[in-house]
Amino acid sequence: MKIKLDNVLPGDIEKRSFEIIGQELGDRKLDPEIEPVVKRVIHTSADFDYYDNLVFSEGAVRKGIEALKKGACIITDTQMAKAGISKPALSVFGAEVQCFIADEEVKDAAKAAGSTRAAAAVDKGAELASSGRPVIFAVGNAPTALVRLYELISEGKLRPELIIGVPVGFVNVVESKELILELPVPYIVARGRKGGSNVAAAICNAMLYMAGGR
């Protein structure tokens, strides 16, 4: 069987992909502020369910962009998400991305508290936030990270610039995301079971590219 391939140059593949996404969305409209984020997530996942699944608090994308322009630190729960976030785009604003999940002090803290490393990593991120550094939490894997964020924010111990809550899975995933929707902080959440480190990175990259005028 012969397959006819589109004659697209390598540099134009992303552009053509976004054109296809726009065509397949058809009459479904998006608020201009969130449109680049939703489309980049669809581009990353080839999953149009994110048109309905992604939930944004009011002004969440704008606030995330403002934080990045101030040199925010993005704290992720996986090395995969960290690797997927554009370092050149971060460097434009003096921003950075950190993943504390493998830090020895985080491992020790989790063992002492009988918690997960993801939860202990949130505590370390909260320490960074307490120093006055703008912090964005991008969670693509661990619902326990979202639960710990909920606890710290509810107790008045943390006020992040933005929470990206998109863990994927079956155990406590849906429930942890719903907790974030109750918080009085900016959030971008993928309701339901879908998500992942690639989705978390895609959301961060979308805002970085928007911040840079791309």
Structure, described:
With 214 residues, the chain is of the alpha/beta class. It has 11 helices and 6 strands. It has helices at 13-25, 35-45, 50-53, 60-69, 79-84, 87-92, 104-113, 117-130, 143-154, 173-180, 197-211; strands spanning 54-56, 73-76, 96-99, 135-139, 162-165, 187-190. It has a 6-stranded mixed β-sheet, sandwiched between helices. Helix 10 links the parallel strand 5 (162-165) and strand 6. Helix 7 (104-113) packs across helix 8 (117-130). The longest helix is centred in the last third of the chain and has 15 residues, at 197-211.
Layout of helices and strands, plus pairs?
Blueprint: H1 13-25, H2 35-45, H3 50-53, E1 54-56, H4 60-69, E2 73-76, H5 79-84, H6 87-92, E3 96-99, H7 104-113, H8 117-130, E4 135-139, H9 143-154, E5 162-165, H10 173-180, E6 187-190, H11 197-211
Parallel strand pairs: 2-3, 2-4, 4-5, 5-6
Antiparallel strand pairs: 1-6
Helix pairs in contact: 1-2, 2-11, 4-11, 7-8, 8-9, 9-10
